[in-house]
TrEMBL record:
Pfam families, per database record: Aldedh
PROSITE patterns named in the record: ALDEHYDE_DEHYDR_CYS, ALDEHYDE_DEHYDR_GLU
Family: Belongs to the aldehyde dehydrogenase family.
Biological source species: Pseudomonas yamanorum
Active site as annotated: E252
Cited Gene3D superfamilies: Aldehyde Dehydrogenase, Chain A, domain 1, Aldehyde Dehydrogenase, Chain A, domain 2
EC identifiers of the protein: 1.2.1.85
Listed name of the protein: 2-hydroxymuconic semialdehyde dehydrogenase
SUPFAM superfamilies named among the record's database cross-references: ALDH-like
Keywords from the UniProt entry: NAD, Oxidoreductase
Keyword match Transit peptide: no
Upper taxonomic lineage: Bacteria, Pseudomonadati, Pseudomonadota, Gammaproteobacteria, Pseudomonadales
Aldehyde dehydrogenase domain ranges (all copies): 12-480
CDD domains for the chain: ALDH_F8_HMSADH (cd07093)
Amino acid sequence: MKHYRNYVNGKWVESPRTFEDISPVDGSQVAIVHEASRELVDEAVKAGHQALAGEWGRTNASQRVAVLRRIADEMERRQDDFLAAEMADTGKPHAMASTIDVPRGIANFRMFADILATAPLDSHRLDLPDGAYALNYAARKPLGVVGVISPWNLPLLLMTWKVAPALACGNAVVVKPSEDTPGSATLLAEVMEAAGVPPGVFNLVHGFGPDSAGEFISRHPDISAITFTGESRTGTTIMRAAAEGVKPVSFELGGKNAAIIFADCDFKKMLDTMMRALFLNSGQVCLCSERVYVERPLYERFCEALVARIKAMKIDWPNDPATQMGPLISAKHRDKVLGYFELARHEGATFLAGGRVPYFGDVRDEGAWVEPTVITGLGDDARSVREEIFGPICHVSPFDTEQEVIARANDTRYGLAATIWTSNLGRAHRVSEAMRVGISWVNTWFLRDLRTPFGGAGLSGIGREGGLHSLNFYSELTNVCIRIDEEARDV
Ligand code: NAD
């Protein structure tokens, strides 16, 4: 059996306390994971500060650009291992992990190397009344030891999205992957070692949230900042802990995203993309749509076409290259999603598709599978229409006017993403800008330029990451102001 150990100060550390890493495909055991103690998290934080006081703290931007590129090259060399680890932990289809999770994980290091290599810094000249002037420029310095706490849905992609810019800016990190997906993070630690990243710069601690590594990081007095992706409720707990030391936080949290489909859209392109927006990663992408609003003339046609596409979907073994949907992440999460199916029934929803656990007649019946599900007929106040479910389920309802749909889409405490489908240019601009979200897509979904600001409004997060926005979060900027006097002249 494989063992996933902690990686602290350049050493692999076992723990007397272990837990099982379970495959959601069939409930089998993938690995034994060594849970970090409070003392080990202390050691990791200390190692980070030592690294900052040593060789790593003296690196310049060009040297760190080279380190990031070495990490990306080593990840690329081991991409098959990453693919296997990610699929074993999550059960996600090969078609997804090989085109999104692993390549994007590698791209995060390359992209932040490029961003750092070309990043401009503020510089301002201020002319003074007496003829002198002041020259201001910003110096970018690391924050210190950054705590990185990540979720299970896109484990490698979301972890590297934070680790890469944190290292680019010269920080040390203490990283805690989700307890459900410890595999790719452990491989990343191996990559750090092979790429020659100095001890203490990248520390990996395994464990859970409360009373475990997650809490130990977020409450640690010597952690300088916390970057977190996960549920909004967990964000609240972490923010409370971070308030103690007035620590900077960057939060990417939950969503209840709207899709708005106007009758003048390109129907085929819309339907192809909406199948992804609803069911990619079994609906476990924070950006997936769970509320679909369709202009009334198109409503019946959309519902029929969606159900027909769902019937043709291949829900199967992750290794089958044709598989479109795998299981949910865990039995616990499946029970939560099934609880929402039950709630929707109780609230009076009509099920157009799904709503049950699929039957395979083999070991997969021990896994965490649910059917792709479409419900209709609920009011906007129903809990299943308001709360994030994070599974392959959406509620579809008709609308009549642009004003109405904008108000309904924005009637949520979340504010992560929207996807809008129309061929009317003016309407595309009007509606996408009116969305109270971090990202509005028009005639597309999940198309990401990594230089752009990414984050959420309301319960969906705090701050923006991506490109320079990430560099600004992971740096302390010191403005240097120099007064330059007129040359003294002899009289
Ligand atoms: P989660 O909040 O349960 O867990 C995320 C991480 O936080 C895990 O590593 C977990 O161990 C840790 N954690 C849990 N409780 C903690 C505590 N009290 N203190 C410190 N750490 C703690 O989230 P999840 O179930 O892993 O992920 C799914 C959620 O993530 C969904 O809500 C989804 O929308 C959100 N998400 C958001 C984005 C985004 O970019 N906005 C991206 C992906 C996922």
